[in-house]
Amino acid sequence: MSTISERTSFPQVLLIEDNRGDAVLLERAFKRAAVEGKVTIASTAEIALEMLRHEHAFASKACPDIILLDINLPRMSGSEFLKIVKADPVLSLIPVIMMSSSEAELDIHAAYKAAANGFITKPFIPGEYDEVVKTIEDYWFKLNETPNIP
């Protein structure tokens, strides 16, 4: 086991977000971060599953070090996606952080019940995305030890 930063200087982040504005704000915040992560954006859970399973055009796509997952997605919800990922013996090793504009206890409870590794409330002020990314970087990239994913 090791931290993500010990394994790579360029962490791979899969962001599953249907709101283009939120996706751009997070992507830009990662570019400004001390440990710049490579952010790949999937606008639906279905596309993200194709990426994770290396299907179709994603056959050579690298496995992400961490997944940031919006709860409210079209067609397949974030919670449904999370249950599929956590049921897979390989994909279940990837840390998944649920993100939502909601602070509702019900949403937070549902995220952890579906085996989320964390829950972050999306900022309402664009500049606060830098703080979210710094926290992710400090904990998930530098401090938390994760298994190597085959």
Can I get a quick summary?
This protein is an alpha/beta fold and 150 residues long.
Order of helices and strands, N to C?
Answer: EHEHEHEHEHEHE
Major sheet: order of its strands?
3-2-4-5-6
Low-pLDDT stretches are: none
Structural class: alpha/beta
Overview of this structure, please?
This protein has helices at residues 4-7, 20-32, 45-52, 78-87, 105-113, 129-143, and strands at residues 2-3, 12-16, 38-42, 66-70, 96-100, 118-121, 145-146. By secondary structure, the protein is of the alpha/beta class. The chain has a single domain, classed as Response regulator (Rossmann fold, 3-Layer(aba) Sandwich), CATH 3.40.50. α2 (20-32) packs across α6. It starts with a strand and ends with a strand. The mean pLDDT is 91.
